[in-house]
Write a structure and sequence with these properties.
The chain is 35% helix and 31% strand. The protein is α+β, with helices and mostly antiparallel strands. It has four domains: 94 residues, conserved putative lor/sdh protein from methanococcus maripaludis s2 fold, CATH 2.40.420; 82 residues, Elongation Factor Tu (Ef-tu), domain 3; 47 residues, no CATH class; 123 residues, Orthogonal Bundle (Helix Hairpins), CATH 1.10.287.1490. The protein has a six-stranded mixed sheet with strand order 1-24-20-19-23-2, with no helix packed on it. Helix 2 packs antiparallel against helix 3.
């Protein structure tokens, strides 16, 4: 029977021990780092940041807008009637006077309508003339009938009166007298009927003439309107100025409502600017804007607000408050500060990149020692191109970091070196 063999317990090699120890240490340090990050600090060089004091001073809310210099007045040229370009009188870029012909269109359908309307007017005029002639003829005929009946009635009346006396004296028979009397009564009633018929005919014919006159008047009015449409085929300059953006070619077909150009008044300018729709309810006429041109400050005043919003913006017109700056030209771009409020004292901090990271809800407040900065919740209200108005969280004389916080992450404390 053999003896049992003792198995020796294997020991880890030194290299393996070092390897696992290093990994464990790295994990431990990572855990410590993650824990410490929750209340971490970061060293920052002061020359890499901007520190601004909290001040109390005059503040006016304004917004930056970009304006474009335009002629003080512009009239657009649109085709009222469609047609084919028949003649061009003036070329683009020409100075024009009010009433100058610019181009003429031809429209065959409109010409046919005019001819048809003229024919209808002529026909209605002839009908009216014929009806008036017929009325006059009927009047003469009926009056002739009345004259004849009156003559016969007068003769019969005298005969009746004489025979009435003879009948009373029994000089004629009753039958003979009754015949004379019946003839007289017949003529009397006949005259009444002729007169009534005459009056009714006159009344109906006068009514017919009145209707024909009204119909003719309507047709003449329509004809005038159609002729005005023909006049609209010739486009004229509405004001004195420079003809611009004019594009037309002989033989080109143009629909009604087509914009073919504009006339710009060359004396005086205005400024047209776009503003974010967020400010639509706050912009009104009389707001003052300022801009710098040729080294001097100048003022503008809002005169018209266009309520239509397009692509999140609306437009306003501004005119120069005083004289126009010498040398300013149409089409130039102006960078304007438009005031939204009056100037009042307020607690202020300078604008800066911090706002993009915090939305104005907090800032890094610099300790009085100047050695570090910590987070401070604040509340901002209005703003202009230089400052934010502070309504909560800061005091006059305190200092905050106003440059960008983009590289600070969620660090609670900044050590300033």
């Amino acid at each position: 029977m053999g003896m049992d063999k003792i198995i020796e317990k294997k020991k880890w090699p030194l290299k393996k021990v070092v390897k696992y120890s290093t990994v464990g240490l790295a994990i431990f340090m990572l855990v410590i780092l993650l824990i410490s990050t929750r209340e971490s600090s970061l060293n920052i060089k002061k020359e890499r940041i901007t520190i601004s004091p909290v001040i109390y001073g005059p503040f006016q809310e304004d917004i930056p807008i970009i304006g474009k210099v335009l002629p003080i007045d512009t009239r657009y040229l649109d085709t009222i009637e469609g047609g084919v370009v028949e003649k061009i009188y003036i070329e683009n870029g020409t100075m024009v006077k009010t009433g100058d012909k610019i181009l003429t269109l031809s429209n065959t359908d409109l010409l046919i309508n005019i001819m048809r309307s003229e024919a209808e007017v002529n026909r209605a005029s002839n009908d009216l003339r014929a009806t008036r002639l017929s009325l006059e003829q009927n009047r003469l005929r009926l009056e002739t009938q009345l004259v004849e009946v009156d003559f016969e009635l007068q003769k019969q009346k005298r005969l009746y009166e004489r025979n009435k006396i003879l009948f009373k004296e029994d000089l004629i028979s009753r039958g003979e007298f009754e015949n004379i009397k019946d003839q007289y009564n017949y003529l009397f009633k006949k005259r009444q009927l002729i007169k009534e018929s005459h009056e009714k005919d006159l009344y109906f014919q006068k009514e017919q003439i009145t209707q024909l006159e009204k119909s003719l008047q309507r047709m003449q009015t329509n004809l005038e309107l159609v002729r005005q449409r023909q006049d609209n085929l010739t486009i004229q300059a509405p004001i004195d100025g420079l003809l611009t953006s004019f594009k037309a070619e002989i033989g080109e077909s143009m629909p009604s409502g087509e914009r073919i150009g504009k006339v710009d008044v060359m004396e005086g300018f205005k400024v047209r600017a776009e503003i974010d729709e967020h400010y639509l309810s706050r912009i009104e006429t009389g707001k003052i804007g300022t801009f710098e041109f040729a080294g001097k400050n100048h003022s503008l005043i809002t005169t018209k607000i266009y309520q239509e919003v397009k692509d999140g913006k609306f437009e306003v017109n501004l005119i120069f408050k005083n004289s126009e700056p010498p040398g300013i030209r149409r089409g130039q771009t102006l960078h304007i500060k438009l005031a939204l409020s009056e100037t009042k004292d307020a607690l202020l901090i300078s604008r800066g990149g911090f706002y993009q990271s915090t939305g104005g809800n907090w800032v890094y407040l610099v300790d009085p020692s100047g050695q570090f900065a910590t987070k401070r919740d604040i509340q901002l209200n209005r703003q202009n191109t230089r400052f934010f108005e502070v309504t909560k969280g800061l005091k006059k004389g305190e200092e905050v970091i106003t440059s960008s916080y983009e590289n600070f992450g969620n660090i609670e404390r900044l050590n300033l070196k």
